[in-house]
Amino acid sequence: MANPEPTLDRTHIRPGDRVCAAVSGGADSVALLLLLHAANSQPRNSLGVGLSAVHVHHGLRGDEADADLAFVEELCARLEVPLHIVHASVPARIARAREAGQPETVEEAARNLRYDLFRQLIADGHANSILTAHTLDDQAETVLMKLLRGAWTEGLSGIHPVVLVPNATHPGRILRPLLGVRRAELVAFLELRNQPWRTDFSNADEAFTRNRIRHTVLPVLRAENPAIDQALANLAVLAREDEARWQSELSRILPQLLLPGKPVRGGGRAVSTAPGESAANSVAIEIDRLRLLDPALRRRVVRAAARQLGARLTFDQTARLLVLAGLLPNSNPGDPTASARTGSTLLLAGQLRAQRSPRELRLYREAPSKSPKNL
To answer: What is the domain extent for residue 350?
Structure first.
């Protein structure tokens, strides 16, 4: 009996959409393109979309990358699928990021570059949906990688099936219609059709974190639980739903809790701030109101306040902030910065600072210091 065809999730693919499949030439993306092409060619229940593909040449891997491009060009020509070819340079992006003080790994730079290009395709009106070939295996690897790095629930939500791409003229979405499919299913699908694919040998290089997770860590975990991939994918669903619920609650209560500027005598709040502090980047929370919240909501409120100022707090930074507010015991008495005394301050992520007043916990971002002019 032939293996059943992998299931393409059509939930977010609408008739009339301009759909663009991201095709690297690897097995997953080749299978995605073939499944989309077949579904769009059905006489009945056709997707009814305008189908195209995009291939990003990252400026890495030399002749191998050139051969990948030639392979994708031949495949798209055979299927009569229009192909967008984008040449980019990961090394150049890494250099720019390093100069800006925001270094990226090769993995991060390649991914960020691809998604910048996907968003540009949408902004230029070439597509309103970019489809990537992420699988259940990719989801499991991502969740485990995030877990090992100490992610919060938003990180454990992993790869989202739908990511909105806002744009004033051409809004769009990035879709992952194979997120419930195992990689082995796609390989079997291609083999059954004698459809070759390209192999990126850098995917075997365990200098990259994801490759170590894929080739070393997950096989050990599968020996303990053969269903670990599905369990991790299920965790992503639960985390995503929980996070959506919390975000809804935060949207409701934050306007009632976050206060601008500093209180002044006689009532009201001052817009002006201390020297070196950015007036536009300051927010405060009354400690008594924060104390009334349950611990889970309390953590999310202070983290959301920091997010409004452009900072992502770690678990430890959040805990220190709650110690400053007198809402957690100080687990490190030797740390002079972990104090609930009035006037105490903390330096958090980036230039974000927190200050304790008698009634408030105030977060503010310091303005960049100006170099003195030469006289």
So the answer is: 261-366
